[in-house]
Amino acid sequence: MNPNKTFKSLRSLHLSLRFVVPLAVALALLAYTVVPLVDKLTLKWFARDMDIRSQLISSTLQEPLATLVVDKERIKISKLLQKATQDERLLALGVCGNDHALLYKTAAFPKEISCKPTAEEQKEKNHLIRLSQGPVHLSRTSLQVEDGVIGSLILVHDMSFVERRSADTRKYVIILFVVLGVVISLITVFVAHLSWRGWMEGVRAMMRGEGILRPFSQPANAELQPLVGEMRSLLRNLETERRHADDMTTTWNPAALRALLNKQLTGDQVLVVSNREPYIHVKTDQGIVVHRPASGLVTAVEPVMRACSGTWIAHGSGSADQETVDRHDRVGVPPQKPEYNLRRIWLTEEEEQGYYYGFANEGFWPLCHNAHVRPIFRSSDWQQYQKINQRFADAVVKEARTDDPVVLVQDYHFALLPKMIRERLPKATIITFWHIPWPNPESFGICPWREELLQGMLGSTILGFHTPFHCKNFLETVDRYLETRIEHESSTIFHGGQLTMVENYPISIQWPIEQQGTLPPVKQTRTEILTEMGLPADHLLGIGVDRMDYTKGILERFTAVERMLEQHPELVGRFSFIQIAAPSRSALEEYHAFEIRVHALAQRINQRFEQAIILKAEHHDAEQINRYYRASNVCMVTSLHDGMNLVAKEFVAARDDERGVLVLSQFTGAANELHEALIVNPYHVEQTADALYQGLTMPEYEQQERMRSMRALVQDFNVYRWAGRMLLDAARVRQREKLAARIGKMA
Ligand code: F6P
User: Fold this and answer.
1) Which one of 104, 129, 163 terminates a domain?
2) CA 330 – CA 321 distance, rounded (Å)
3) Are 584 and 464 in the same domain?
4) In angstroms, what is the span from residue 621 Cα to ligand 1's centroid?
5) Is the distance from the beta carbon of residue 436 to the nearest atom of ligand 1 less than 6 Å?
6) Is 288 left (phi over 0), alpha (psi -120 to 50) or beta?
7) Ligand 1: does its nearest atom lie under 6 Å from the Cβ of 296?
8) Residue 298 Cβ < 6 Å to ligand 1
9) How far apart are CA 430 and CA 461, in angstroms?
10) Any idea which of 3-7, 301-305, 390-394, 655-659 has the lowest mean pLDDT?
11) Is 372 within a domain?
């Protein structure tokens, strides 16, 4: 026997009983009060009829009968009485003398009736009494002649017909009430069923986080609205409080993240998808070496993955990648001490050209960054983008051990992926994080495939951006180009039967940094670096670390350095700005041209101010970069537009001496958090130059105060909190969905 079915039948039985039982009780009460009342009334009506009838017969018989009695005409009296009783209702007649003797009577005159009226009969002339033969109506009238009363006439009417009629009436009343009851019950149960379904729908919608919004064609059940509204606000309050509490009380570190996974997600499998892989195997003259890419995404997601284990699916782009995987294209990483699996996806040159260089980096990248570079959209790139997204979706399905894994989709390379995964794994929890800004609707509108991209992203359970502003831009874009239902209060989008929560999760870095505890003191590092560069011990240093990308404001930064030296000639020869610029996307014309411009500007400035710019346009590993952070007086982050910018946070994390100044572009997500940095508009050359100078000359106590505050923030809002908040939200959505599914089965 199917337990679900049994449960369903029990529930409908219970539902029906809840309405039928009270109705049955009401019916019984009606039967016990109404039926006797009807009986009583009919009897009363018939008795009154009999009274009138008796009076009529009496007055008709009065005169002839009185005369015959006086004349003692026995036979005639008998005949007269006999004739009168031919009326079927008149059962018997009797004539009494004044001495209460029964003088004449018809044959059926009941023995129990005597001429002497009982005390009760004396009060009223007409009576209803029950005899052995049944109920009768008894009427006594005086027989009068001119001289006075000579006796009385007793009329006995058969009243058994009243009982018969009463029984009939009772039967019809009961039938009427039963029919009415059944009809009312059916209507009530039907209405109750509809209400129950409506209520369940409402609760399910709430569980899905849809609030109480219904499709426009389906108005909400008015009488349930207050209840559902209250429940909704209660759930929201609880959720906000719980979320706040989670955020504030938990110290976020790898252990906390692991505990969250085990407790809230009951150890569900975590799959990460990104284009860039965290470890690249490269062939060199010294054999195969492992590189870590210059990628904010990798910096953030790698520590999370180490905490969660699971599988990271990414493009295998290294020259020795194929040689280092197993037959399932997997390799355990980190290579020295594997903690999770890296599953590599292979792309042909043509595919990489269309999907990565073309659509993602010539189209999407400039589309999302306000850096005044025009996006290029080609149909051939779009086709590759679709094809490669599908390939990654297939890999996710293949790697999934269950039908409901937690999939973390990273960045603009995979806008179509969430929907593709959702189609194959409907129960998966898909968290998409967008590492770059989201433009306003007008800017996004120039993309020829805007609807498809938005629909693809809305396959996500949770869609994360760095800032509330990017979330707002996204909601407005969806509102502009898709038919959806957006609930701004809860920042959710309902589209094609799928609910997506759009939330801001400011990304961060690992805390403490990997090298913590193994680093020489800042002073020592500074001396070493200056020595390596052949610079004097009191030389001032600035540092910039970026990929060679036109969005990073490297040219603006150099111009500010030049301007600062123009304004403060005393610093010429006493200050150098080190720019680490990791080669990036150099196969693209725009990037290639940018690199040439960066080199040319550095060269031109250096011709004016010797060693003002030290350009290191090559890959540096995290350890090397950390040394530069620690050795520098000022770090400059002057992006023209940036999702978050983790360099700003890395610099802060590196300065355990609580010294050093951060100059930070107002167009980065980091500027929302690191308020103690010197915030600048990188397009404003003088302002940026002033900030650089202010940083180089800032008193130590002020440096310390600012740095201490920023370090506290980065420590607290580290990458584990970033991932933890998303996973917590995912866990809540999963619980809600499971609950909604259970309620769905019940309804
Ligand atoms: O900023 C977006 C982003 O994906 C970053 O996460 C990362 O730092 C960078 O781009 C890497 O770019 P690519 O993978 O193209 O080298």
Assistant:
1) 163
2) 10
3) no
4) 16
5) yes
6) beta
7) yes
8) no
9) 5
10) 3-7
11) no
* 346-356 pLDDT, tens digit each: 999 999 999 99
241, 242, 248, 253 alpha-carbon torsion, rounded to 10°? -160
Nearest of 649, 592, 588 to residue 617 by alpha carbon = 592
162-171, 295-304, 554-563, 585-594: range with lowest mean pLDDT: 162-171
Do 462 and 550 lie in one domain? The reply is no
Nearest to 437 by CA among 367, 355, 361: 367
**Pseudo-torsion of CA 528, 529, 530, 533, nearest 10°?**
120
Contacts of 219 (CB under 8 A, 6+ apart): none
Q: How confident is the model at residue 43 (pLDDT cuts 50, 70, 90)?
A: confident
Mutate to test the pocket of ligand 1, among 435, 545, 641 (most ligand atoms within 8 A of CB): 435
Beta carbon of 417 within 6 Å of any ligand 1 atom: no
List, for residues 91-101, the tens digit of each pLDDT value: 889 999 888 88
3-state helix, strand, coil in the chain (%, to 5): 55, 20, 30
Given 115, 145, 163, which residue is the final one in a domain? 163
Calculate how far, in angstroms, residue 429's C-alpha sits from the geometric centre of ligand 1: 24
Query: Domain check: are 493 and 529 in the same one?
Result: no
Is the Cβ atom of 297 under 6 angstroms away from ligand 1? yes
Structural domain containing residue 585: 522-716
| Helix 225-249 × helix 719-746 angle, to 10° | 150
Residues 22 and 119 sit within 8 Å (Cβ to Cβ): no
User: What is d(CA 601, CA 84) in angstroms, rounded to the nearest whole number?
Assistant: 140
Which residue do the tokens 């010429």 mark? 572
The number of folded domains in the chain is 3
Q: What amino acid is encoded at 408 in this protein?
A: L
In this structure, the residue with its CA closest to atom 11 of ligand 1 is 295
Binning pLDDT at 50, 70 and 90, where does residue 239 land? Answer: low
Is the same domain home to 499 and 596? no
Q: Chain centroid to CA 524: how far?
A: 54
Atom of ligand 1 nearest to the CA of 293: 16
> Which strands sit side by side in the sheet containing 126-131, from one edge to the other?
102-105, 90-97, 148-158, 134-145, 126-131
Q: Ligand 1 centre and the CA of 568: distance in Å?
A: 36
- pLDDT grade for 222, boundaries at 50, 70 and 90: very low
Pair 143, 291 in one domain: no
- 453 CA from centroid of ligand 1 (Å): 19
Q: How confident is the model at residue 225 (pLDDT cuts 50, 70, 90)?
A: very low
Determine how many CB atoms are found less than 10 A away from the CB of residue 212.
18
Number of the ligand 1 atom closest to the C-alpha atom of 297: 6
**Any atom of ligand 1 within 6 Å of the Cβ of 295:** yes
Task: Supply 464's token pair.
Answer: 């994360």
300 CA: nearest ligand 1 atom: 6
Question: Does 95 reside within a domain?
Answer: yes
CA angle 192, 198, 199 (to 5 degrees): 85
Residue 446 sits in a domain whose CATH number is 3.40.50.2000
Judge if 467 and 591 occupy the same domain: no
Amino acid 657: pLDDT: 97
Q: Atom 16 (ligand 1): residue with closest C-alpha?
A: 584
Same domain, 526 and 670: yes
Mean pLDDT of the chain: 87
Please name the residue whose Cα sits nearest to atom 4 of ligand 1: 297
The rounded distance, in Å, linking the Cα atoms of 127 and 200 is: 64
Residue 136: CATH number of its domain: 3.30.450.20
Classify strands 575-582 and 613-616 as parallel, antiparallel or unpaired: parallel
Residue 375 is assigned to a structural domain of this protein: no
What six digits make up the tokens of 653? 């994390």
Distance of alpha carbon 577 from the chain centroid: 50
Q: How much is the pLDDT for 7?
A: 42
Instruction: Please report whether residue 711 resides in a domain.
Output: yes
Give the predicted TM-score (pTM) of the model: 0.70
- Does one domain contain both 576 and 688? yes
Give the number of other CB atoms < 10 A from CB of residue 449. 18
